[in-house]
Specification:
Helices cover 32% and strands 21% of the residues. Strands 1, 2, 5, 6, 7, 8, 19, 20 and 21 form a nine-stranded mixed beta sheet that branches. Strands 9-18-10-11-14 form a five-stranded parallel beta sheet. Strands 15-16-17 form a three-stranded antiparallel beta sheet, with no helix packed on it. Helix 1 packs parallel to helix 15 (437-457) and helix 15 (437-457) packs parallel to helix 17. The structure holds flavin-adenine dinucleotide and ligand NA7. Ligand NA7 binds at residues 146, 152, 184-190, 209-210, 329, 350, 379-382, 492, 497.
Length: 541
Amino acid sequence: AAETTVTEIDAVVIGAGFGGIYAVHRLANEMNMSVIGIEKAGGPGGTWYWNRYPGALSDTESFVYRFSFDKDLLQEDTWDESYLTQPEILEYLNRVVDRYDLRRHFTFGVEATSAVFDENTSRWTVTTDSGAVYRAKYIVNAVGLLSKINTPDIPGVDDFDGELLHTGAWPEGIDLSQKRVGVIGSGSTGTQVVTALGKVASHLTHFIRTPQYSVPVGKRPVSDAEIAETKRNFDAIWDQVYSSNVAFGFEESTTPASSVSEEEQRRVFQSAWERGNGFHFMFGTFSDLAVDEESNEAAAAFIRSKIAETVTDPETARKLTPQGLYARRPLCDDGFYQTFNQDNVDVVALRETPISKITADGIVTDDGTLHELDVIVFATGFDAVDGNYRKMEIRGRGGKHINDRWDGHPDSFLGIASAEFPNWFMVLGPNGPFTNLVPSIQTQVEWITDLIGYAEEHGISSIEPKEEAVEEWTDTCTTIANATVFAKVDSWIFGANIPGKKPSVLFYLGGLGNYRAKLDEVAKSGYSDFAIKYEPVSQSA
Ligand code: FAD
Ligand code: NA7
């Protein structure tokens, strides 16, 4: 057999979304290192490459869903509306890649399948499905936290004669107009795709297991004057974003709902409803919706009253109305509830009539009804956060497999690094911040590449967090999470959306400002939370 060529390189970056793109820019352009970016998609974009479904929209406002590291880039950017659609974000990321001449560092259409650490040389060997092998001192994983798709195993799915689609692997250029479409799943993605497809499908059936609370997104055109004003204020805007909790570009409320009258609560909720945005509704109205069940219920009751006002058929409204805590990733939509007033749109409540099987003709529910379909859309989410890591053969010191380390629950130090896995870094790994994600991604990439720079400067051969540091960070994340209402509800935020996956705390819910302060402290201490090994001192000279 032909011998495999091994390419020696400083760093391997896995993924070409926001994280991978910026990591390659930092390492290659600013630190002058040799870097290969490995991406299984056919081009850059990550989330925005894969999720091409109709209606795909960022629900972070346009002015803060972007990089901020380059003021010239910020000044040159422009946008038409208060939110960016998937094609606009994909175009933006391609433009960034070209602007910094990054395409030549990436290999697209290639999946990294294993990464194995050699303690003697402090080098990682990365293998890919194309047969290419790289030996590198550092790995930066930017594999995405909402990237490994989840398709439920429904009996008979292979018998379906029509088209099966997942929103997270949407083919280009598919036309669903005049088709009978069934959509399974009603999270952020399901609400977006249903709202969009309701306008074109001949008939649309939405299969909902757990209805969720959704508020209007508030998408509107943005004037040139407003953009100019935003550009003038970039410094203040980004200072605010980076010192805030959720980093969405609005001031978070400091007033608990429990401190005001019911009338005042309704007034504030109404004004937030008119303004739009899910995170704003949860964190910009009052300060205690995420921690106080009574305040949370006040918000939930308000949204329920809006559903009742919006949806004309009471039986349909009932099926769409959530009960219980408002404690998943807060959703917003562009006319989701209104969609159900259309004659061509129906809802099936799966808690009342679960899916029993899929046949050649469609979906059969356990009341015996066959819902005839041409297309089934899975809007059933992702094996979030650790999913893409577990797919790879990742072996650290002593041959330790990442899945063995993460057997109980995935852990990390700062969502960035793991004990037993030296010189191996994660962007948005387990227990990273829960925010508008681009500012967190940028923060982490800068911190990781600074650490790599420090290691190079100080003759460090390997660096990994100490076990105590990992334990302490895990405890911090757990304590904060358990003080919130989010911990009381099953969702992907806690790994509680995948059958067989052990639920656990997967995020640092302490806010980006506090997170950045912690990162600063660790760097300023000379990385004292890390175990460091130095290169042998050269005897020459
Ligand atoms: P990704 O963009 O997920 O990129 C990871 C890349 O790694 C992928 O392209 C994947 O193919 C590649 N990859 C993974 N494993 C391998 C491997 N082994 N080998 C090779 N390549 C690999 N966040 C917000 O803050 N605001 C929003 O409004 C928002 N909206 C969203 C809407 C949708 C539909 C989805 C799915 C996510 C949304 N997110 C949003 C989260 C979004 O994922 C992040 O904002 C951001 O795009 C993540 O960037 P990333 O680079 O970390 O990961
Ligand atoms: P989510 O938020 O995980 O939503 C997935 C939806 O799919 C949710 O309604 C699930 O119902 C439903 N689902 C999952 N499995 C099944 C089965 N087996 N049967 C019926 N329904 C099912 O994923 P999204 O893609 O919407 O959003 C993920 C994040 O990406 C989002 O928060 C943004 O940050 C972008 P359940 O609630 O589990 O009953």
